[in-house]
Structure formats: C-alpha cells, structure tokens
Amino acid sequence: MPKAEKDRKIHTSAFVFWMKDARPNIAKPGMSAAEVAKACGKAWKRIKPEERAQYDELAAEDKKRFDAKHPKAPKVVVEDKKPKRNKSAYMIYNDETRPRFLEQGMTVAQAMKAAADEWNKLTPKKKEKYEDLAVEEKDRYDQEVIEHYQQHLADQKLKIAAAKAKMAANSNQAED
C-alpha cells in the first residue's frame, strides 16, 4: 500500500479524481502549482453535469471504502463534575418573577428588564426573603466545592500512586 494511501485522513473528492485526469491537459510548462490549481478550479466550475457525474460516482465509492476502513470513533462525553454556581438574591427573584412576565407575552429581554425594575423598587424588607435564600444557596455551593475538591484530591492521589507503581514496575523490568 502506498504511503499516501495509508496516511490519508479523508476520502478523495470528485474534484481530486477529475483533477488527476485533467491536470496534464491544463498544466503548461513553467506554471506554478498555485497557477495550475487555480486554472483547475476554474475549469471544474465549467464542467458539464454529465461529465461530473462519473467523478461523483468515483468519489461516492471512495467514501464508502474509506468509511468502511475507518469507522467513526464514538464521541467521548466528559462529565462536568464541578458544582453549579450559587445564585444571587436578584437571580433567585428573577427566576421567580420572569415566568409571570413571559406569560404576558413579553420577550425574554423585556421580561428581564421588567423584573429588574421591580427588584429595584422592592423595599429592603421584601428583599430580605431572597437574600436569605441566597445565603442558603451560597452555603450549599461552598459545601459542594469543598466536597468536589476533596474528591479531586483523592482521585489525584490514586493517579499518582498508580503512576509510581507503573514506574517501579518498569524499572524492575529494565533491571531484569
């Protein structure tokens, strides 16, 4: 198998198949590779659909061959384990009142503005309820952050211990 075939990262396009056939007719002595490529691109745009169809078929066959040889790897989903940030008193109020404004037919931006206007008009006594909820939310977040980092440290210690054991095993094999 030629090296170029082995290292290809994508299937061959119809344009590339066509260019293999047309390049000798388009390239003139003394033309740079960029000039040849530009001339090929212009000629490809003018090609008739009937002529192009054969190259599209070749490309489709090559794509099938390539896909069979290189199956797509499954996507790895990385789970974000960080705790969710705490909400401020205003955000708790906003979450509570925004649906009421949206039911009135306001856009999200209008609902946010109306909620902000209402928040600014609230008395400190009425804001106290939301500030208390925000303190509870902050305590929850702080506790989750502590737990998260303790778990992270434990995971790191396990990884370090495994790496040290692997290094020790490798050095023992090298000595043998």
From TrEMBL:
Top-level taxonomic group: Eukaryota
The record's listing under PROSITE patterns reads: HMG_BOX_2
Query: One GO MF term, please?
Result: DNA binding
Asked if Nucleus is a keyword of the record, the answer is yes
Q: Which part of the chain is the HMG box domain?
A: 8-74, 83-150
Keywords for the protein's UniProt record, in alphabetical order: DNA-binding, Nucleus
Q: Does the keyword Nucleus apply?
A: yes
Which ranges does the entry annotate as DNA-binding region?
8-74, 83-150
Give the GO terms filed under biological process for this record. regulation of transcription by RNA polymerase II
Instruction: Give the matching Pfam families.
Output: HMG_box
Identify the GO cellular component terms for this protein: nucleus
Quote the InterPro entries the UniProt record gives: HMG_box_dom (IPR009071), HMG_box_dom_sf (IPR036910), HMGB (IPR050342)
Q: What is this protein called?
A: HMG (High mobility group) box domain-containing protein
Which organism is this entry from? Ditylenchus destructor
Upper taxonomic lineage: Eukaryota, Metazoa, Ecdysozoa, Nematoda, Chromadorea
